[in-house]
Amino acid sequence: MSGGHFDYVQYRIEEVADQLFEESVRLDFPYSHDTRKIFYKTVAKLKAASVLLNRIDWLLSGDDGEETFHERLREDLDSILGEGNK
Questions:
Q1: Are 47 and 17 in contact (CB under 8 A)?
Q2: Taking the model in full, what pTM does it have?
Q3: So where are the chain's domains?
Q4: CA 67 to chain centroid
Q5: Per-residue pLDDT tens for 7-41?
Q6: Alpha carbons within 13 A on the beta-carbon side of 6
Q7: What is the pLDDT of residues 53-84, one digit of tens each?
Q8: CA-to-CA distance for 71 and 17, rounded, in angstroms?
Q9: Virtual CA dihedral for 61, 75, 53, 47, nearest 10 degrees?
Q10: Does residue 21 contact residue 46 with C-beta atoms inside 8 Å?
Q11: E strand segments, the chain
Q12: How far is residue 12 from each of residues 15, 35, 70, 83, measured CA to CA in Å?
């Protein structure tokens, strides 16, 4: 595993996002539709934060150069947010 500058906290952020998503899709979700939408938006932001932190981690750890950082960041964000939704 590369990186390590931030002690791999980005993977914990991603785990929290996954747990929050699982909560929000439960059939017995006890909150309103508006609250569920906030959960979904939070999941998307946490996923993006995890990607951003991971790419910065690799850059600061010397695993990626600046050009590769920008390329991989764009690709990773596109894969989770879709083109043009950053």
A1: yes
A2: 0.85
A3: 9-81
A4: 21
A5: 889 999 999 999 999 999 999 999 999 999 999 99
A6: 17
A7: 999 999 999 999 999 999 999 999 999 888 65
A8: 24
A9: -150
A10: no
A11: none
A12: 5, 23, 23, 25
- At residue 37, what is the residue type? K
Residue 11 to residue 35: CA distance in whole angstroms: 25
CA distance 35 to 55: 30
Q: How far is CA 68 from the centre of its chain?
A: 19
Contact (Cβ atoms closer than 8 angstroms) between residue 10 and residue 53: yes
**Could you give the CA distance from residue 4 to residue 20 in angstroms, rounded to a whole number?**
25
CA distance 86 to 5: 25
Task: Find the distance separating the first CA and the last CA of the chain, reported in whole Å.
Answer: 27
